[in-house]
Records
---
Amino acid sequence: MNRIFSGVQPSGNLHLGNYLGALRNWVRLQRDYECIYCLVDLHAITQWQEPAQLAAQTREAAAGLLACGIDPKTSILFNQSRVPAHAELAWVFNCVARMGWLNRMTQFKEKAGKDRENASVGLFDYPVLMAADILAYKATHVPVGEDQKQHLELARDIAQKFNHDFGVEFFPLTEPLILGEATRVMSLRDGSKKMSKTDASDHSRINLTDTADAIADKLKRAKTDPLPLPDSVEELEKRPEADNLVTIYAALGDKTRSDVLRHFSGKGFAEFKRELTELAVSVLSPLNAEMRRLMADPGAIDTVLRRGAERADAIARPILAEVHRIVGFLRA
Ligand code: TRP
């Protein structure tokens, strides 16, 4: 049986990068897999979150996923902290994973920056919790972007060491699912940085909650260069901001970058941006409207999450009980 697990942090607004890079694929995967999608609030607090905002953002992220097409009747959608198996299995895995393995994680180095001494222990331990997320359900596949591949490798290492140390064949070696379409969307202000929920400038991203006017304004002000659009992808790749906008256009229109260049080469950014805005608004407005409709009834969203947590718990609980038995915890 194939089972997908994936997670997204409810640490800010869902944006176009989340949509094109992950959520759109999550929706497609529902056709072929049993899917478990998780709002990882335990991961979110590895960096400071205002409590009232965290709760509101979790609900909003749930609305975003539902609006994009996650179907809670088939897929499981819930927030992580509701299912105790995540934190509990993470503790066991803390005793399986080695310091040396975690010391090699590049995302910790990036997120902690220069002030490593002041980073939370949770931020260092983040990948172990992620391994627990996946393995608490014995997920066979995880759709991941480039930046999470190393964490998935770690989950495989933990599964393998657990199986080896305890002499069992219990956890699967979860496979990454790299989808052709997964688009890496960059900041609208800096073509070398990923579009991010936590970027200080709201003009760096297009949020799923942005109105048509906001989208138009952000794209108009998106960084570009003075040259017209090139006629080859090779030339395009030398210009990160231009490449980013063409990539977004291609992803939104289900085209390749060459298709887009064939149409726009030699034209200026003013014209290109006008058409990009039209396309972005046409794709995002229905999502935006559906999100607003869902947000008007927070009780209904909470019911979806509660139901999702119950279903998730029903899968994870027996797996965790088996882990306890394997490890040798006394159950009287
Ligand atoms: N670390 C992932 C991210 O930031 C989110 C995440 C948490 C996740 N647990 C997961 C993704 C398990 C896949 C599987 O994108």
---
Amino acid sequence: MLTPRPSFVAVLFVLAGLLTFSSCEDDAASTSTAPAPPPKITREVDPNAKPVPRFDADSAYAFVAKQVAFGPRVMNTPAHDATGDWLVAKLKSFGAAVEEQKFTVPAYDGTPLKSTNIIGRYNPENEYRIILAAHWDTRHVADQTDDPSAVVEGADDGASGVGVLLEIARHLGLSTPNIGVDIVFFDAEDYGQPGEVYNQDSWGLGSQYYGKNLKAPKPQYGILLDMVGAKNARFGREGYSTQNAPMLVDKVWRLAKGLPMSAAYFTDEKLQPLTDDHFFFMRESGVPMIDIINFSRTNTRGFGDHWHTGNDGMDIIDKNTLRAVGQVVVAAVYRDAAGTF
Ligand code: AHN
Ligand code: ZN
């Protein structure tokens, strides 16, 4: 099929391709590999940009405690649904345009999971946007402990990331930066199959659904927060993040190292790829997303002793950890809006 000069037909194909790319956001089906990322939009320095707010860790802590007080946010339970209603109301009160993306997906065991991704959008029409995400559901089994009576409260695993993002949403409402920001609470992340077989796709059902159904204007990149509240947490550089968005990881970690409240928490430890919502969101949408997640080889059990046990309650949450993460993320958002990220 190679010709010395481009044939008329080849030129037509190129033109058709250009037209397709300029007029149609939904080109995912045309490729067998990952869908194309959104077109890069160049950033300019804005001397009148809003200053970076001071992240209030007391406020974030209260948002975490409130979620935990509802009880475990396990799929298909009243506590889950009541928490969802509260999250929607909070995002609305912080001035976001709120969408409840409802869907039902079968779990690994066939259970239909009534799921809701909760999205709060700022500047919903803005072409340049970013996504900040965390999962809001709680694991249904404490499968990392032998104690049969253990219940996962999910203070760190779930509520911490949502609490940090609610505090960021509060600031976005008070002083909205000049970029689009999508705050997304993924549902049905933590209903993955327990036991010996590793069923990767049984995890992250909400992020899989959100990525598959992502509409324009698509975000340029994303930041996922998962388990960002435990005392002495450490955030290494997670494998899928580094593979897919090395520059973004560098920027965020460099930013963290310049902030006194954050520096010690963000390490240069290279982590293995971890199955989490960012992996599924990237796979389905083609939009790069990094994961800020408490994982280290120096933790006794990777994610920490409390992970998927009966010990994931408020007593392991430390405001200093919430602040360490929250201040980095809020700075990334406002600096990006200022053209200085
Ligand atoms: C797995 O355990 C396969 N991935 C970790 C993702 C996760 C679970 N995050 C919170 N809970
Ligand atoms: Zn979990």
